[in-house]
Design a protein that fits this description.
This protein is α+β, with helices and mostly antiparallel strands. It has helices spanning 7-15, 35-52, 86-94, 96-108, and strands at 22-30, 56-62, 77-83, 109-117.
Amino acid sequence: MAVDPKISDIQRFKQEDTGGPVVMLNLVRFKQDGGRTTYKEYANAVLPFLKKVGGQPLYVGDCSTPLVGEPGQLWDAVLLVRYPNRSAFLQMAMDPEYQHVSKLRTAALEEAVLQATTPWPGSP
């Protein structure tokens, strides 16, 4: 199950860069033994790195029973984080100090979706 991006994922992410803002959708499923606690530790530790690149959390919340969904599509939490552009996200991800902190994320998660989204023209 996927938790961290592969090199090929990062290359594709860079190639699809429009130069504009990006909101990263995070769907996460925590490991049973302490995953939620470890992820909260990560969430607090990542804030200075977000601020450094101009990123900002827009929404963080727990998921409940899906209204529409298939087995295996149950998630524990959802997070939306805005970055000025994909380069800012990559700058954060490549920071050696952040990479140390990101080990908490990896340790906390059983599975994740990290999906870049871009605003529709004319949307707020």
